Amino acid sequence: MPIEIKELHIKINVDEQAAAASTATSVDETQIMRAVTESVEQAVNIEHRKKER
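Below the sequence we write its predicted structure tokens.
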């Protein structure tokens, strides 16, 4: 039986002082953006497959 997710809530806490002080944040930001992009693409693919049914 398929599971349908109607809502997805994501809550994050951002510490701006720590991000500004660290020089490694640009690498982390790149990895985070890549992960977010992949997640969005997967969500779009799931919605597309649901519409095909």
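Residues 23-52 form one domain.
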